[in-house]
């Protein structure tokens, strides 16, 4: 049985139907959170370019309408690539685009069914006709991962997020298989590490709760991986794991709730995104947070966010955070 439940599956597959990168946000500063863009269809992943534009992976509405959108600094949305798979699957979940990453001069895109797309968008300008997803090079890794003999096999795969690691290789979180997948620069795929579950701290659900990997970063020495626990989504029990370059996994810090993203900072520590607190009706509105993680624990940097999904830094004092309500908010201090 898959104890991630339809609600968790919706988040990881793209969008709950019931319903950032690099500099520290100082606790002593006044933080302003203002609307930047709205009307987006299930924004999951954010990325930035050198010109100050924010790129968004929109999961869509289930009508094969997933797309990559560029948000110019004035907040206007410009479709760049359209026609990605976006479908309603078993349990009423929506399966579509996930996260994106600029690397090697191309845009890497994680799509439905554990597909990795590559797009050359260097020449795109607002107003240009969008590219079509069907014309992009794609690596379909679903069967490779499903065929792998995991010790605790979920019989599922869902490539969700990615980062660059040593030698320019891609390291990807698989929120279905609960594993970290490696793709070398030469295009060779392998299973790098498995993320262990935790003992269920509640009387409800299975004895072991899946530690679903979401965000991943590489700090030059080790990887850090954020997790969103499976059913019953216990509060305060999610972990940040660390991995060495050989794939050995250990706990970095605990005490978190439903983490969906992790970001490096210039000071010691990281920023993480809490999607929300799970209650009787699913993830409660306005319980999302950006949390600052240091060696002595974590603290709230931004509170009362509504189902946030990703965080990206634009400059030394500006971040953008996406939410499943179809918005991107600007966080400035």
TrEMBL record:
InterPro entries (alphabetical): 6-blade_b-propeller_TolB-like, ScyD/ScyE-like
Signal peptide: none
Stretches assigned to coiled coil: none
Source species, domain of life: Bacteria
Gene3D superfamilies tied to this protein: TolB, C-terminal domain (2.120.10.30)
Name by which UniProt lists this protein: ScyD/ScyE family protein
Organism listed in the record: Persicitalea jodogahamensis
């Amino acid at each position: 049985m898959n104890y991630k439940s339809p609600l968790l599956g919706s988040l990881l597959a793209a969008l709950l139907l019931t319903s950032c990168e690099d500099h520290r946000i100082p606790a002593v500063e006044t933080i302003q959170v203002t609307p930047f863009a709205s009307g987006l269809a299930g924004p999951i992943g954010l990325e930035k370019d050198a010109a100050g534009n924010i790129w968004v992976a929109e999961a869509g509405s289930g009508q094969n309408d997933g797309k990559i959108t560029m948000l110019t600094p004035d907040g206007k949305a410009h479709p760049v690539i359209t026609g990605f798979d976006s479908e309603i699957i078993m349990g009423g979940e929506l399966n579509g685009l996930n996260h994106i990453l600029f690397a090697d001069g191309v845009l890497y895109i994680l799509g439905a069914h554990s597909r990795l797309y590559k797009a050359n968008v260097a020449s795109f300008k607002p107003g240009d006709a969008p590219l079509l997803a069907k014309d992009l090079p794609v690596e379909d890794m679903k069967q490779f991962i499903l065929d792998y003999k995991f010790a605790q096999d979920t019989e599922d795969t869902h490539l969700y997020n990615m980062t660059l690691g040593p030698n320019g290789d891609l390291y990807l979180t698989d929120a279905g298989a609960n594993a970290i997948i490696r793709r070398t620069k030469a295009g060779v795929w392998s299973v790098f590490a498995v993320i262990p579950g935790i003992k269920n701290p509640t009387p409800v659900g299975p004895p072991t709760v899946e530690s679903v990997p979401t965000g991943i970063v590489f700090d030059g020495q080790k990887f850090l991986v954020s997790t969103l626990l499976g059913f019953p989504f216990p509060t305060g029990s999610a972990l940040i794991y660390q991995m060495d370059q050989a794939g050995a996994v250990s706990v970095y810090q605990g005490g978190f709730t439903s983490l969906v993203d992790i970001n490096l900072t210039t000071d010691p520590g990281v920023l993480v995104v809490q999607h929300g607190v799970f209650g009787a009706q699913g993830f409660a509105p306005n319980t999302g947070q950006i949390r600052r993680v240091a060696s002595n624990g974590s603290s709230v940097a931004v509170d009362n966010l509504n189902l946030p999904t990703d965080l990206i830094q634009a400059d030394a004092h500006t971040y953008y955070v996406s939410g499943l309500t179809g918005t991107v908010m600007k966080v400035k201090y």
